[in-house]
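Input.
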Amino acid sequence: MDLIESSGDDGLSSVGVAGLAGDAIEIAQKSKPEDRGTIVTFKVKATCIGGQIKPTLKLRQRMSTCEVGGMAAGGKPGVACCRFRKDGRIFATGGWDRRVRVFSRSGRSLATLKGCKDSVTSLYWNPWIQQMIATGSADGRISLW
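Output.
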């Protein structure tokens, strides 16, 4: 999961992205088929009413990401990591299906990066070169995209 501050006049809003992950058997037993291998974007807003802070959560979008089952993920559907780019306009996900997916903040798919030999377990946007992503995978390899 990752959160970024959202532009707004109150300054108390954030936009987030989170993914669903788990062992194939666990996912199959505890989730609906349409939820497997998905991410959600959401907005959290805190409002002060009568001296108390009232948080609200609004689901913005649910998107399919990873392939589920089969050999693509070794039978493990899921998203291992999500991260917004520094400017908050784009985010990327790393999946157990060995792919990095890049989305616009609105949820439009921008790219699918293939080439990792194992599950993508971490990713980091380069703060100086906004188009560059570093990823780490379960086999210990680091890739630059």
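Residues 20 and 78 are 5 Å apart (CA to CA).
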